[in-house]
Amino acid sequence: MDKIKNFFQQNDAFAAACGIELLDVGEGTAKAKLHLKKQHLNGVGVAHGGIIFTLADFAFAAASNSHGTIAVAINANIQYLTAAKDETIYAEAKEISCGRKIASYNIEVTNESKQTIAVFQGMVYRKDAQLEL
User: Which of 41, 46, 65, 79 has a C-alpha 20 to 30 A away from that of 118?
Assistant: First the structure.
């Protein structure tokens, strides 16, 4: 799993530019974190929905590609449950089902107190190609 983790840390320039760190990758799972800074906040001073989505999407990408098969999102949705500000937030992805072509994942975004900030659900199409690790 270290190869998958390194692959995403080295190749996802957007996540890196946002300050997202991939903490762990397992078979069908991943965990990432982001320490919120001023540039991550919206006009009313709380975490921008786009940065929360990006964090969840990055964990989703790592988990869905953890089998070594290229997986690309075909659907994603998020529900924001509470605001986050001036803290570290985490996204933890868990595989719900994984078939030959389609796989589904639930991602929970939490704060340092383990309070749920958002829930994200994503589905991927699994290609016939393997990741080049």
Answer: 65
Largest CA distance in the chain: 44
Quote the strand ranges of 49-114, DSSP E: 69-80, 88-98, 102-110
Q: Report pLDDT for 39.
A: 96
CB 43 within 8 A of CB 54: no
pLDDT at 2: 86
Residue 56 is predicted with a pLDDT of 98
The answer to whether residues 23 and 33 touch, using CB atoms and an 8 Å cutoff, is: yes
Per DSSP bridges, beta strands 116-130 and 69-80 are antiparallel
Contact 1, 27 (CB under 8 A): yes
Strands of the sheet with 29-35, listed across from one edge: 21-26, 29-35, 88-98, 102-110, 116-130, 69-80
Backbone angles phi, psi at 72, to 5 degrees: -125, 140
pLDDT value of position 55 = 98
Bridge partners (DSSP) of residue 68 are none
